[in-house]
Inverse folding.
């Protein structure tokens, strides 16, 4: 397993299940910083996820059925056409996506 850190910890776990979240650019408030000495990576993830879940402003393009459908097709193609992962579950929210996958190739 390859581990690296940006704002939150990241892992490449080829063959192991991974929970993946990606979001639309600009979907989190600009001043959302969490002081690392007071908030763990897991706590920061939960806080950011709540911000995304309850957002009423910012880009909400995934609310549009046509766009959500394109994202859904791309997610399914990652498994069916390209064999990048086994897809176990996913949910498309108005401004972000959650996926549970078992990757077959490293993310980087």
């Amino acid at each position: 397993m390859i581990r690296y850190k940006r704002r939150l910890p990241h892992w490449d776990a080829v063959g192991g299940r991974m929970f993946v979240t990606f979001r639309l650019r600009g979907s989190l408030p600009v001043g959302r910083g969490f002081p690392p000495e007071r908030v763990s990576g897991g706590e920061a993830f939960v806080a950011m996820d709540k911000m995304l879940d309850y957002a009423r402003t910012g880009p909400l393009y995934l609310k549009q059925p046509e766009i959500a459908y394109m994202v859904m097709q791309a997610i399914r193609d990652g498994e069916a056409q390209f064999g990048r992962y086994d897809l176990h579950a996913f949910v498309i929210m108005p401004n972000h996506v959650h996926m549970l996958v078992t990757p077959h190739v490293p993310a980087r």
Summary: Residues 65-80 form the longest helix (16 residues). The mean pLDDT is 84.
